[in-house]
Design brief:
heterodimer, A: mainly alpha, 2 domains, 14 helices, flat, B: alpha/beta, D-Maltodextrin-Binding Protein, domain 2, ten-stranded mixed sheet, three-stranded mixed sheet, 17 strands, 34% helix
């Protein structure tokens, strides 16, 4: 479980039963136990769990068998070999994996600080009249389909990036090398910005809920010890909301890794080794979008499905890595609370 | 010249020729449709026999506007993105005049057209390049008929501030732009071809198709024909729908994606179907043809290329770099793909009528949309191909009248 749920107090439970004494409630529940409803509910639970398992299993088996021809053709090197050139019968996911990780990483670097900042503002600092409407607005933003964000990137951001942003970044003295090369507009950077915009609302609303779940008493205690507002956030709220915030980041990373259509619209779709953040690229998702409908039957189609398999593995690895990081860090949580200065 | 009638019977509704188990449900359907129609008399006066009165050599059945089609038919098609402006217009007009036939076309790309017809998920596909032998062999529904339905060209469009007239480009220069050896608009190679044109010192932003495409195939063919350096760069002399990986620049999806990029990015150059270039009001390069003259895409110059296709067939379809001083060098025919055996006879009849109209009367709209009307020998080829349509039992759906 990601979310800490507060167990209901015994008083609350008996309160639900109204005026009935606790014994009578228990007897009433026991009497009905073996009736039809319980059986049906139990069957439904098992069916649900079974179906879920079957779907996951079917997905894995399907992807595995359909991509096996590609792995047989290109070997395990498919995963890291750099050339993706269907015209010449060369299939390798290496550059696509690199670009996928790169766009996701840059998107997170751009998005997480802004997302956390907004969440802190909404939950700790904003006046109530502002926090409400702003949260609603962010909720709306989360509901915008990715293709719409992609269109916005294609039609609005692309010319701005090509004519202003990328030339400007390339001229920044110390960082110019990160953005060198032709300013095409569509690029790894633009794709990262679109991904950042796309994942921001989820990040904000989830971390805000996490902050909201921190007991008021923790804040009051910190304030009583003479903490400033920033110290309250830093020392009392952050540590307690750590699990929720990590879940938000994990979700955002998952979405960024797998996002296909919006990325395909703004990344430039050229699988070459990136020279800088402003070079065009291609991610696993965008390559699937571009190639699947028209992949040549046989190895071509199988290789595109194999891209899906690689994406699946990548997502699982990144998620597992994130959780391991969280687990290794949670031991220090107890100490941070006491480290208030 | 010739009159064509359904099943060789004068004006008789074709339903009578059907096997009973098909005819029964069909008749019920037809009655339902007639009953549902608002009392129109359309079913009583088929114009099929009037074929001979039509001056056009090949207006199958003369029945383009024949509303006697026994049932309402919806034809779903998918394929080439390049033909979309043309198809959109002619399908709409056909439906206006023959409301019983509704056509939905999904312009997802030539290769989608091929895959979809192979798997039988559409009534017709369309591809800028005819299907290869191995693609035909992979078709699940038997023999695929390939009907040439339009003649188009691939425009080399660009967006260079201050350059408002057509610049001249040849194969080696274009190849240089796409393989990255020419990176600036004031490059001597471009300047040498365009004396008197002031070219800015501006980086070239080349854009190509991210999906595999007919225009990409045609330009690849042109560059292979004219630029040895291109063949070296891409390492093959076989053109490919997938734009070669050796290319610089960015990839955008479909003609619309490329066109959008060109229209909003200064310094950009790319290739789109001429119909899209016309819609967007692009300035297009005059491309050097095999006669050594520089020709911009127009209806006339594309028609001149099509006129060279005297022996056109699905295996001899190449009209790139054709001879003639007024010939635009990057042209191609678009091919509609249908199964010879039509499991649903109504669909087969409707398909045949629709495309016979498209290759004849429908061509009148071609010029204004950025295409050239089909040459008469191609119309005959297309028409004869449509005549090969059969029912599921192998009976021809159409036949030549006396």
């Amino acid at each position: 479980m990601i979310w800490e749920t507060t167990p209901m107090s015994p008083d609350a439970v008996s309160g639900l039963a109204g005026a009935w004494p606790a014994g009578r409630v228990r007897r009433a529940l026991l009497r009905k136990r073996s009736r039809f409803g319980d059986g049906a509910y139990s069957a439904l639970r098992w069916a649900g769990a079974g179906l879920f398992g079957a779907v996951v299993l079917g997905l894995l088996v399907g992807i595995g068998s359909d991509s096996s021809a590609a792995f047989a053709h290109s070997g395990v090197g498919f995963i890291w070999s750099g050339t993706w050139n269907p015209a010449a019968g060369q299939y390798g996911a290496g550059i696509l994996v690199l670009d996928t990780l790169l766009t996701t990483a840059v998107a997170m670097v751009l998005m997480v600080p802004i997302g956390l900042g907004t969440a802190v503002f909404l939950s700790e600092l904003a006046p109530r009249w502002l926090a409400g409407p702003l949260s609603t607005l962010i909720g709306l933003l989360a509901a915008i389909p990715s293709i719409v964000v992609g269109l916005w990137g294609l039609l609005v951001l692309t010319p701005i990036f090509a004519n202003q942003v990328e030339p400007f970044l390339a001229s920044v003295p110390a960082l110019g090398w990160l953005f060198r090369g032709e300013a095409y507009g569509p690029s790894i950077l633009l794709a990262s910005v679109v991904l950042a915009v796309m994942t921001l609302p989820t990040m904000v609303s989830l971390s805000r809920s996490a902050f909201g779940g921190v007991p008021l008493a923790d804040r009051e205690a910190a304030l009583a010890l003479g903490a400033t507002r920033w110290q309250v956030v830093r020392r009392a709220v952050f540590p307690a909301a750590r699990a929720g915030v990590s879940a938000a980041v994990t979700l955002a990373v998952g979405r960024a890794l797998g996002e296909s259509i919006a990325v395909a619209m703004v990344i430039g779709n050229r699988p070459a080794i990136p020279e800088s953040l402003t070079t065009p690229g291609a991610t696993l998702g965008s390559a699937i979008v571009n190639q699947f409908a028209e992949a040549s039957p046989g190895i071509g189609t199988s290789s595109v499905i194999a891209l899906g398999a690689v994406l699946l593995i990548l997502t699982v690895l990144v998620n597992a890595g994130g959780q391991a990081l969280l687990r290794s860090g949670s031991g220090s949580q107890a100490h941070t609370a006491g480290a208030l200065r | 010249m010739r009159a064509f009638r359904i099943d060789g019977r004068p004006a008789a509704p074709r339903v009578f020729a059907l096997p009973r188990h098909v005819a029964g449900p069909l008749a019920v359907l037809a009655i339902t449709v007639v009953a549902a129609g608002c009392g129109s008399t359309s079913a009583s006066t088929p114009k099929t026999a009037a074929g001979s009165a039509t001056p056009s050599s090949a207006n199958l059945l003369g029945a383009a506007y024949d509303t006697s089609t026994p049932a309402q038919v919806t034809l779903n098609g998918a394929g080439a993105n390049s033909i979309e402006p043309f198809f959109e217009t002619v399908f709409y007009q056909y439906n206006q005049k023959n409301p019983n036939t509704t056509v939905n076309y999904s312009p997802a790309g030539s290769s989608v057209g091929v895959t979809d017809i192979q798997q039988g998920t559409v009534a017709f596909g369309d591809s800028e390049i005819p299907m290869t032998a191995s693609q035909l062999a992979a078709a699940t529904g038997g023999t695929v008929l390939q009907i040439p339905v339009d003649l188009g060209g691939v425009a080399i469009s660009y967006n260079v501030p201050g350059v408002t007239k057509s610049i001249d480009l040849d194969g080696p220069t274009l190849a240089g732009i796409f393989d990255g050896s020419i990176t600036n608009w004031d490059d001597p190679a471009i300047a040498a071809l365009n004396p008197g044109v002031t070219l800015p010192n501006l980086a070239i932003k080349a854009v190509h198709r991210a999906d595999s495409s007919g225009p990409g195939y045609d330009l690849d063919q042109y560059l292979i024909d004219t630029a040895p350096a291109w063949v070296t760069a891409i390492g093959t002399s076989t053109p490919s729908r997938t734009w070669p990986e050796a290319s610089v620049g960015i990839g955008e999806q479909l003609n619309t994606g490329v066109a959008t990029y060109i229209s909003q990015t200064s310094g950009s150059i790319g290739f789109v179907e001429y119909g899209y270039a016309l819609q967007n009001g692009f300035v297009n390069a005059a491309v050097k043809n095999s006669a050594g003259s520089f020709v911009a895409p127009t209806e006339a110059s594309i028609a001149a290329a099509g006129a060279k296709a005297t022996s056109l067939s699905p295996t001899d379809f190449n009209v790139v770099n054709e001879a003639g001083s007024g010939t635009y060098p990057i042209a191609n025919f678009s091919w509609t793909l249908v199964y010879q055996k039509q499991t649903d006879t109504n669909t087969g009849i409707a398909l045949g009528k629709l495309f016979d109209w498209v290759i004849t009367s429908g061509q009148e709209d071609a010029a204004s949309l950025g295409y050239a009307p089909l040459p008469s020998n191609v119309v005959t080829l297309a028409h004869n191909t449509i005549l090969e349509l059969e029912s599921s039992t192998g009976t021809p759906l159409f036949s030549n009248g006396a």
